Description:
This protein is α/β, with parallel strands linked by helices. 32% of the residues lie in helices and 20% in strands.
Amino acid sequence: xxxxxxxxxxxxxxxxxxxxxxxxxxxxxxxxxxxxxxxxxxxxxxxxxxxxxxxxxxxxxxxxxxxxxxxxxxxxxxxxxxxxxxxxxxxxxxxxxxxxxxxxxxxxxxxxxxxxxxxxxxxxxxxxxxxxxxxxxxxxxxxxxxxxxxxxxxxxxxxxxxxxxxxxxxxxxxxxxxxxxxxxxxxxxxxxxxxxxxxxxxxxxxxxxxxxxxxxxxxxxxxxxxxxxxxxxxxxxxxxxxxxxxxxxxxxxxxxxxxxxxxxxxxxxxxxxxxxxxxxxxxxxxxxxxxxxxxxxxxxxxxxxxxxxxxxxxxxxxxxxxxxxxxxxxxxxxxxxxxxxxxxxxxxxxxxxxxxxxxxxxxxxxxxxxxxxxxxxxxxxxxxxxxxxxxxxxxxxxxxxxxxxxxxxxxxxxxxxxxxxxxxxxxxxxxxxxxxxxxxxxxxxxxxxxxxxxxxxxxxxxxxxxxxxxxxxxxxxxxxxxxxxxxxxxxxxxxxxxxxxxxxxxxxxxxx
Length: 512
Ligand code: BG6
């Protein structure tokens, strides 16, 4: 008889900052769902760690409410197993205090820092000083850090040094939840599994790329964090730079986490962003003033105050609620193709997409005169507005814009859109967080940000922040498209920003 291999020891998830909102609303409901669905082991152990005086029973009550409110209800079997194995440990972030975690973390363990960002460095150091980063007998130790990773190039460098003083880079899992989104992974498949796509993915066929994350949402009670951060730190430096890197990177030779990350770092290193000289053109910031926004699912647009009038925001705040950057990539594939990235709050739509503008055909053979249909529009393709679009929100969609012959006599042309919408995605899919938690426990680092990646993204963005130390963001009305870009942001001949209002759903669009 073949010898039986003992099952691997169950993972322990230590959540530092366990009494906070992130654990209750997001983290624990995700863990619970994954255990219920068999995607994490049933004997996964949860250890809450925080400064609050709580018993394990009170901690469990909070977790249960979190799942009931935010996780779609309790799965009795998963809950019974998780609650039987859970513990709460009270303590601060000194090495002496965190040592109390040692008896709970004798097997493979994740230390998830659900803490304010200023505590990432001290917490990582305390855990390492208490000996909890040491991996013995195959029992791995992983440290999870949320965004933001630093608030500037200097602070990110300092945080990186603090983390690596006690942990190896391979042990550190930096979360950027955009990398867990379905379309980001689908982008890689779309590019790499289709010869016709990879064949046009270069400066011969693409004129520019626009990457947008537009939200009609305002601060949602997060003013304390947001007013310190602003749009560039909140979205551009991390989420949009990741979308950019995945779009622009070279195809990896193997589907393996470290190789993917290296390819992203390579393209980031080849990227130029704003400089002190051109930041007035290449970096745009705005701040919303009072207006009306249409929130998804709401019957009517609602009037909203300007950012400076929001409750609790200091009226003289200098924070931007919109940021846009132009980037260029100095490599063989992308030289001469500007990448335009933008994100903003309280815009006129909820749209997240990567849109690649195709260069027009060298010659349009079908002149206006060739048409015998007087109403026909043969100008298609000449205004340079053909796009390949990967949309993450409001729906998971891939669109390819093309020109076709309109049925009938004569050579009348029309635009068509080839649209693939994954209607199942929203309903059946796991959240980005759930995807990342599975990878975390499996030790797959491909969808986590490596330290040098975060630092390269900061290198590209920092000159914009430096330039913004002076002056004020441009006002834009809530519910609008955001501020107009300055002359020169888009090179002549390129299409301007695409509208932030999402197009009608695929069902309503003309589909062939
Ligand atoms: C977060 C930002 O990281 O991402 C928020 O802090 C933003 O300001 C959010 O609203 C957007 O994420 P998603 O998944 O809703 O597009």
